[in-house]
Amino acid sequence: MPYAHITGWGMAVPEKVLTNQDLSKVVDTNDEWIRDRTGIRERRIAREGQYPSTLGADASLKALDVAGLSPRQLDLIICATSTPEHIFPATACLIQDAIGADKAGAFDLLAACSGFIFGVNMAAQAIRSGSIQSALVIGTETLSRFVNWKDRNTCILFGDGSGAFVLQASDEPGGVLSAVMHSDGSGGDLLTLPAGGARHPASDFTVHTGMHYIAMDGKEVYRFATKVMVQATREVLDQSGLKIEDLKLVIPHQANLRIIETAARGLKLPMEKFMINLDRYGNTSTASIPIATVEAAEQGRLEPGDKIVFVGFGAGLTWGAAAVTWTGPLSVEHKPNIQREKMAARFRSFIRRSIRRVEGFLNPKELD
Ligand code: COA
């Protein structure tokens, strides 16, 4: 049975920074409150023309560059997102087209902030089954477009960004060792985006009542999160035969520093064992774990052979964790030129669109 290794990682965040100070000018809050209660100092906000797919494509190309893998070698793309570009087509398909992953099946996965862990687990299972060789898992968000900037309970928490992993098959032991995925739909009402789906399609009423914005019971989500972070981490450690002291790093979902501190106490792990960067990005939902991983790698906190745990929670309710032996890129004979691949992808996409138009023009009655 092949092993599923994480061989590439990349991130992309908008340039625009929104500080707590900036927020205090639009809503009744202040820097001290936000830092004390959440640990967040600033977050990134997408500019016009920046979407989950554009950020996701940028993060993906960086991940492919690290892995030394051409987009055309990808078999599968899973895009975890809480803020899909459309209900359909899937954001994964937009990214597939943008990077030119012509061979890959692509779909979105909706498990809110746990989505990236669920996606990594699904991709690892497909690789271990032998049905595919390589996969791209993306977490990408523009939450700023779904936040009510008048609601101080939610608007202080979220930010935009994207992160991606490449997973590849190898006979060398390691990679994703174990993973758990959990859900409890009875808590679905605690964190929701009520309108825009089939129950409350867009209407004057939904727009006027703000039903297209994130709604949250912060206290209940907090209570749930502190409980499941510890539980899910213990589960994956048990399943992979690891002990807590074997862990080099825990990379948690970056929602609130106090939630992570409570989890650290529960696991009896010092805070130095946790990767934290929520102070600079806020909660980027599915993107938070891959963004934190990229920064951990850049800071030299991840070496091949290190045992790490990803753990997260989110709306649904959902929660999960994965235990991993960190690998790094597999050896490759020819490293692809990712920028050239990106241009070739745009060209191939243009040709396919043109052919479709010409065929439609020449054979307008083909369906008769
Ligand atoms: N600025 C200033 N004051 C604020 C505020 C803000 N942004 N938001 C709330 N307050 C006020 C409240 O009105 C309340 O005032 P009161 O005591 O006069 O009624 C007080 O601060 C305490 O509010 P409370 O809601 O009890 O704060 P909290 O300590 O529970 O922190 C959250 C609120 C949202 C930070 C916290 O509950 C949380 O992080 N929950 C989890 C959210 C999460 O992670 N969601 C994403 C899941 S993926």
Tell me the layout of helices and strands.
Elements: E1 3-12, E2 17-19, H1 20-23, H2 31-38, E3 42-44, H3 52-67, E4 76-80, H4 91-99, E5 105-109, H5 115-128, E6 134-142, E7 160-170, E8 175-183, E9 191-192, H6 204-208, E10 215-216, H7 218-240, E11 247-252, H8 257-267, H9 278-281, H10 288-298, E12 307-314, E13 318-325, H11 338-362
Description:
By secondary structure, the chain is an alpha/beta fold. It has one domain: Thiolase/Chalcone synthase (Peroxisomal Thiolase, Chain A, domain 1, 3-Layer(aba) Sandwich). It has helices at 20-23, 31-38, 52-67, 91-99, 115-128, 204-208, 218-240, 257-267, 278-281, 288-298, 338-362, and strands at 3-12, 17-19, 42-44, 76-80, 105-109, 134-142, 160-170, 175-183, 191-192, 215-216, 247-252, 307-314, 318-325. The chain is globular and about 60 Å long. The model has no long low-confidence stretch (mean pLDDT 96). The structure holds coenzyme A. Residues 29, 33, 37-38, 113, 152-153, 156-157, 191, 216, 218-219, 221-222, 225, 255-256, 283, 314 line the site of coenzyme A. Coenzyme A (COA) is lined by residues 29, 33, 37-38, 113, 152-153, 156-157, 191, 216, 218-219, 221-222, 225, 255-256, 283, 314.
